[in-house]
Structures are given as structure tokens and as C-alpha cells.
Amino acid sequence: MSSPEIASLSWGQMKVKGCSTTYKDCKVWPGGSRTWDWRETGTNHSPGVQPADLEEVVKKGVKTVVIGRGMSEALQVPRATVDYLKKNGIDVLVLQTEKAVEEYNALAAQGVRVGGVFHSTC
Questions:
Q1: What is the structure's pLDDT at 14?
Q2: What's the CATH number where 83 sits?
Q3: Is the pTM above the cut of 0.90?
């Protein structure tokens, strides 16, 4: 299964190719996507993305994870989260969300088993 293309991004809205849902924040992986509900792990802008936010994506067998920090990069990514991915042999890119979507789509188009978590507002 290939990683789905992120078809569109605007403030507070993301669309994934092949999915009818419009997401505010989303998780994507080879073969799927879903809403990224911060309440599941108690995530907030600070301290930010937790390893628990990424476990589902990691379990899909990705080689690379792209993290979109928001349009204004308000979402933090602690060193422990990056270390968690690296310890699992996964490359990680942490970028402003528009840049993150560009990188994610480029990797997906190359056939890389890429996953990601994306925050579409601040």
C-alpha cells in the first residue's frame, strides 16, 4: 500500500486523496488516514507532539514520519518525541505544516513508506 497524497491544505482544513473526510488535524500512513484527536493523548501546543501521538503511524511500518507543526509553528515537538522515532529506525522531518505537506507528498510520490501528523491551524 502506498501513502495517500494530501490533496489540499488551508487554515483548519485538510483533505486526503481518496477520503471524503475534511480534517482539522490528521494522521496519515500507507493505506490510510484519520483525524488526529489531541484529546486521545492529552496533547497541547506545549509540550507538544508526544510519542503516543505517533505510535499508530509507527505501527504501520513507515520509514519516515513528517510532523507538521502548524501554520505558525505553534505546536512543539520535544526532543523525546524525535528520539522515539529515531530509536525505532524512522527518519523524521519536523516542519511548518505547508512545508511538511510538500515534503510528505514528494516522499509519497517517490514510493517511500511515509506517514505523518499534521496540525492545520496555528
A1: 98
A2: 3.40.1230.10
A3: yes
